[in-house]
């Protein structure tokens, strides 16, 4: 194989992958080669542009560390994450819609008792969250594991605060015998995704804003069901119509109800304004290997 | 913009790039979005596969340092580099064909006088290289700048030898008034591209070998001409027919002539076997901004 031209080079690369033992890997690399060569032939990059692309990808990798995943941000802001999400969640009636995992999930959040306050001094107005985990047909899923994580009232996650060395506004709860859970937190704000890296460079160069509407992340798991990765969005937030990662779904927008003083549902006497939300999450039955592969995908996600 | 499905997400991302001030950047990102979304819809990745891809790209970036560029290797082994090369070098009659820059070019190689020996103790049989730099119509290009870099007789570049702290088997020469140059080196070997990173993982998983046929890199520049980035391949080398980066062209395969003792062309008395090669390089006239953009692409290439 020698002397390839702008067309024959593609077949040469496809031929080089012919002996790949794993048929799925061969399928992926064959499709990747075809689409990426078509992209290159379409834009006809100069050497300078090719080199800029190499540098962009290199810097994107080098910004990543245990608290930051710039390639996930890139996937998010190019709509790839939500496309992969849509492909993997053709959801049946009665189940909650999904959205992006995002770059801020951390493995090992503290397991807390129901009713705990996860805010640990982070800023924001008090928020009482209660929810229920059910199957698509409405059966309560006792003991479901609920991971939650969110920004504070100024739009910051704990991992973005270098002066903090403990986790906050993230926890793991277990649903009670009726599939119910509740906890105290603070009302999150809309926020910009990290803007000082390569993804920020792309957003600036394309006159795109970096903001996401206010939301709380949930990852809910129960044996026999697919893990549910989703958000609840604050119905009053800015940016619901132009989330920079394309993650908003109408069914995930909920009222964060305004309350003033009085008694909270858990009997706590409230002094000043606070908020409350309530949501029922429906889980999709596991489809054998699909559930297994999602679970294994999530396990290393923040390792 | 909310509630995208597997098809409408693509238009949402394209719309987000509509206000990009630079029309070329808008064109590139529009084409990238279309092709990458088509790729994702084609392969329907699981979450685990998407996460594996994020991890692969992250590790690829993190392996890069001032001596190693894994994303260039990835581009090379997917045939992207040679495709970009082909698009940028639709060469007129009388000019030398081009091939990949590769990951081992280093800015700041020593400027040496004609006739110098660049091997500096690196292993291999002596090789006498002589050449000539001419225009497409055969006019000698006096004073042309010739960068050369190559592996040793065991297939290693200086930058792959952690115990070395000085450059070897790389230099910069200036052609004489007749466009001629000559220097001493060693006969290079075929070699594997770096195999211990993400690109090595890909080659192993696809049962591809990592080898390139023996070659010497040249980058030749002269005012008014496009920089020429090419190799000369040893006609007796293994892997000429299956270079792992798809870089071989028949016109770049030359005899590394066997000699035994006697007197070299520069008058040096030789004791034992040595080799000699001779090649005339034809440069393409600069086409305004094309030459400028190639030059600017090469300048930061090893920064």
Report on the structure:
The structure is a homodimer of 303-residue chains. With 303 residues, chain A is α+β, with helices and mostly antiparallel strands. The first copy, chain A, has 2 domains: 8-44; 70-298, Protocatechuate 3,4-Dioxygenase, subunit A (Sandwich), CATH 2.60.130. Chain A is built from 7 helices and 11 strands. The first copy, chain A, has helices at 8-16, 23-43, 47-63, 70-77, 80-88, 198-205, 289-298, and strands at 126-135, 145-150, 170-174, 180-186, 191-192, 211-212, 215-221, 228-234, 253-254, 257-263, 269-283. In chain A, the strands form 3 sheets. In chain A, strands 3-2-7-8-9 form a 5-stranded mixed sheet, with no helix packed on it. In chain A, strands 4-1-11-10 form a 4-stranded mixed sheet, with no helix packed on it. Residues 289-297 and 299-303 of chain A have low confidence and may be disordered. Chains A and B meet through helix 1, helix 2, helix 3, helix 4 and helix 5 of A and helix 1, helix 2, helix 3, helix 4 and helix 5 of B.
Keywords:
2 domains; 27% helix; 4-stranded mixed beta sheet; 303 residues; disordered C terminus; 5-stranded mixed beta sheet; 11 strands; Protocatechuate 3,4-Dioxygenase, subunit A; globular; homodimer; alpha+beta
